[in-house]
Amino acid sequence: MAKTLERINQSIWELREQVRLYPEVFDYRKDLLDFWVDSKVFVERRSGVPEPERSFLKLQKREALACLLIHGAGGSPEEMRPMAEHLFRLGFTVMGIRLPIDPNYSDSGLTEYFRALVGRGGGKGRNGRAANGGGSWSACLAQAEVALDTLLAYSPDSYVAGFSFGGTIALNLMQKFPVRGTILLSPGLFPVGGSRFATFWTARRFIPALTKKVMPVRSMMLDLIERTRSSLGSRPIDNPMLVIQAADDPVISARGYQFLQKRATSPKSKFVLLARGGHVIIKGEDSVKVFGYCGDFIKGV
Predict the structure, then answer these.
(1) Under the phi-then-psi rule, with left for phi > 0, alpha for psi from -120 to 50, and beta for the rest, what region is 123?
(2) 116, 174, 208, 273: which one has the fewest Cβ atoms less than 10 Å from its Cβ?
(3) What is the DSSP track for the chain?
(4) How much is the pLDDT for 178?
(5) Contact by Cβ (8 Å): 66, 151
(6) Cα torsion for 112, 49, 170, 90, to the nearest 10°?
(7) Domain 52-300's class?
(8) Could you tell me which residues come within 8 angstroms of residue 198 by beta carbon, excluding any fewer than 6 positions away?
(9) Within the chain, what is the greatest distance between any pair of CA atoms?
(10) What is the tens place of the pLDDT at every residue in 85-144?
């Protein structure tokens, strides 16, 4: 597999050179994007990722606006496919990437971790996997950066859209890349509290190393969330944003919605607070309305 990946990387480099030399040739840019996603899917397939959960590309056969979709920490590209279908029907090229978060791993929690140790489970997560998580926020952000950089080589008129933890990543990409606009769906900036999070916060404060071991996904999310809030600070955000959240979101507080609204300076930014819809607003009866807002935003910016 190593030699195959070496050949793939060489081919991607050669295509990038063609795009650099002849940026006006659409076929070179289209081939670069298509081949890059194919290479990512190849690795995911060899790693045993089910087809619906792999990265995907819906590529127009002509010049088109483009959008990168980033799923949440508890999901996969599969949850973004209905939105991708909607945007593709509107004439946009759409790419959805898979974050390097282990799909077979979830936070075990302190109680389950110690129970596993007593039961000689060795502190492993489900399926006997070591409780070390499925990736770091830096790995997730790095892969998203490469994906967006490739999409921008295809079209400078590109947008980034993220759901939940994907929204946290999108906020970081927005600060580094010249995207036309950013779509944030239930963006992870201020998690709602509750008893489970109270235990997590306490453990994270007093036993941070153990917390990262038994609750790596939650720890990873909180690390990036805190970093993102700090990087945004109190400065204005001039990149056009569409922020959509439900008032009854049980996972992410509306403080994040208000945090972004106060900092938005672009007249093209739009904020939509749905009366209901829960956290996963990309599913359910209101999802079509959400997709409609997204399509209108891209066409209007």
Answers:
(1) left
(2) 208
(3) -HHHHHHHHHHHHHHHHHHHH-TT-HHHHHHHHHHHHHHHHHHHHHTT--GGGS-EEE--SS---EEEEE--TT--GGGGHHHHHHHHHTT-EEEEE--S--TT----HHHHHHHHHHTT-TTB-GGG-BSS-S--HHHHHHHHHHHHHHHHHH-SSEEEEEETHHHHHHHHHHHHS--SEEEEES--SSB---HHHHHHHHHHHH-HHHHHHHSHHHHHHHHHHHHHHHHHTTS-B-S-EEEEEETT-SSB-THHHHHHHHHB--TT-EEEEESS--S-TTSSTTHHHHHHHHHHHHHH-
(4) 97
(5) yes
(6) -140
(7) alpha beta
(8) none
(9) 63
(10) 999 999 999 999 999 986 454 444 444 434 443 444 444 443 433 333 446 889 999 999
Residue type, 262: K
Place of tokens 């974050």: 99
